[in-house]
Amino acid sequence: MRNDTFAKELISFIDSSPSPFHVVHNLKKTLRDHGFIGLDPKSHWELQKKGRYFTVMNDSALIAFEIGEGNIEEEGFKMIAAHTDSPAFKIKPFPEMRIKNYIKLNTESYGGAILHTWLDRPLSIAGRVVLKSQNPLNPTKRLIDFKEPIVIIPSLSIHMNRTVNEGVKFNKQKDTLPLLGVVNDEFGEKNRILRLIAQNLDVKIEEILDFDLILYPVEKGLITGMNKEFISSPKLDDLAMVHAGLKAIISARQTSGINVLVCYDNEEIGSATKQGADSPMLPYVLERILLSLGKGREDYFRALSNSFMISADMAHALHPNYEEKQDPTHHPLINGGPVIKINADQKYATDADTSAVYQEICQKAGVPVQKFVNRSDELGGSTIGPISATQLGIRCIDVGNPMLSMHSVRELGGVLDHEYIIKSFETFYGL
């Protein structure tokens, strides 16, 4: 009998996290429940040894840390980094478009989604709404989740596109716009989205200044497979690694260094935002930690030299229908353990030194470990690993659990793998 406790917890976490803003909201709640104290980046920090803290950027990125009792300049930071965002469709301002009596929404794609997987699925809307306040520089922000399936992207009938099964090239401005509903009056009521938002949040339309809203599938994640070995769910990339890092930092035993969990936003669009990996967010927080502990700038650089980061993003498993797409000698399998990701052009931050470290961690944790390298004639993606390593000049490795259907609206991972990687993260934090 497989232990699916962690997998069920992951599915619950994903189901309650339809947008990066909801991800961070849920992280904050869980961290507070386990003794972590929230820090305002605009306030003076007074940190204590053995303290547990977190801070948030733009409501969609979070850094949590636990301070050990040792000298940080000698012990360094042990960091796990993941990201809160996933490919999606973002609703544009003034999005309503009327075609005859149909009302559809104008959207733009976010990240590299497999577009056809979004068609003909019940979708809802979630994100952040910005409201008027007494201070124009600090408007009020509220989370919103309609939860109910209120939009759908209908596909074109095969009778009107006889070659559909030979492959379709989608026009994102035309083919992927979601249908909101049908109106029966001649002119139709305007500002339907704003009215729906106002009704959901119990505010006046005039209070709504702007919004960050995305579409998401309402179908829940589940455990499947002949032996209940698979996790089928949206957003495994990369909420599986966010959840694993969260489980590890709240359960790992106290050490002499500083354990850090970094949950960036915007990895799917290159990380070049104030809350992304290609920003000073993490360096600023790490330095502020040392300054609050009475350390100097040289101590900060010494601490970085003694630090190690695990960049945690999902990895590609061998696809049974496309075996030729994998490298001839590297075939990561679902439920075969965490995957070390390697690239000669440093699209991943892994080198022999950091790979050896993580292999030792997995051995100590009692979990198997695998390796992934792209075919030499295929371009792969990249991660936050090389960006973070460049920002900080620290040792870093890229790892992740093997999965299929990456960037589909619904992805497939392994029940055992999620338990494996949590154990490896707990072991890392406990070193």
UniProtKB/TrEMBL annotation:
InterPro entries associated with the record: Peptidase_M18, Peptidase_M18_dom2
Oxidoreductase in keyword set: no
GO biological process, one term: proteolysis
Top-level EC class: hydrolase
Pfam families, per the entry: Peptidase_M18 (PF02127)
Gene Ontology CC entries for this record: cytoplasm
Domain of life, per lineage: Bacteria
Family: Belongs to the peptidase M18 family.
Protein name in the entry: M18 family aminopeptidase
Taxonomic placement: Bacteria, Bacillati, Bacillota, Clostridia, Lachnospirales
